[in-house]
Backbone:
């Protein structure tokens, strides 16, 4: 059975928990996501630990954002760990995105993060991004693809507009995905897994609805089954 297009966010308190969650979910999902906190706490060892013997794809979500030369060095360093996906902030601009793409090994896709799913329309105005969110995300998406990014991160609310903007061939990754009835927590722009896929997403980032479950493996299997039924 083909694993579901889900990246489970391993926002664990320690390396042992992250590795256990990864082992439980990898029969059901294609990808596991390592974020900033876990990577900063344990360094490169975390990649091997969560990848385990399964060889599951690892999404390294560091959201690099600095001057082009610095981001190039960081991209070169971490792509040696062979993550399938590495994130940078689209707001870093075309030269920075291009530097990350050129420095990464060919097996690592650079994904540009458009606008964080925790930001509301009001937040965008306060930080000086001209809204509405759909327009700002589309502008950043187009800029990122022109700069060489082959994947984009956007909320499920914008995924349809982004797909129309960039066309096929670009991987669209959507955080802010919550099964029906789940708590939205700190996410401001959310959708169900089925809706996100229907709107054009390729990879769904799901964390606490799976990892906070008493049985993360069963939770991942249940969501994967619901996606198969909807397809």
Residues:
């Amino acid at each position: 059975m083909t694993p579901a297009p889900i990246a489970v966010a391993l926002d664990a308190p320690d390396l042992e928990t992250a590795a256990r969650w990864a082992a439980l979910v990898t029969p059901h999902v294609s990808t596991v996501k390592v974020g900033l906190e876990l990577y900063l706490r344990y360094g490169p060892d975390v990649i091997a630990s969560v990848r385990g013997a399964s060889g599951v794809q690892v999404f390294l979500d560091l959201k690099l954002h600095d001057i082009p030369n610095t981001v190039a060095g960081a991209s070169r360093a971490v792509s040696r760990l062979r993550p399938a996906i590495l994130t940078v902030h689209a707001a870093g601009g075309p030269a920075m995105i291009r530097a990350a793409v050129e420095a990464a090994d060919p097996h690592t896709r650079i994904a540009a993060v458009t606008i964080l799913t925790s930001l509301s329309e009001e937040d965008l105005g306060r930080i000086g991004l001209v809204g509405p969110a759909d327009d700002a995300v589309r502008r950043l998406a187009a800029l990122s693809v022109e700069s060489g990014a082959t994947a984009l991160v956007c909320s499920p609310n914008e995924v349809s507009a982004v797909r129309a903007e960039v066309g096929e061939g670009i991987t669209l990754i959507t955080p802010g995905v919550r099964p029906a009835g789940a708590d939205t927590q700190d996410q401001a722009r959310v959708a169900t897994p089925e809706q996100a896929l229907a709107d054009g997403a390729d990879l769904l980032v799901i964390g606490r609805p799976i990892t906070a479950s008493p049985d993360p493996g069963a939770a991942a299997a249940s969501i994967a089954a619901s996606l198969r039924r909807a397809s």
Q: What stands out?
A: The two ends are 14 Å apart (CA to CA).
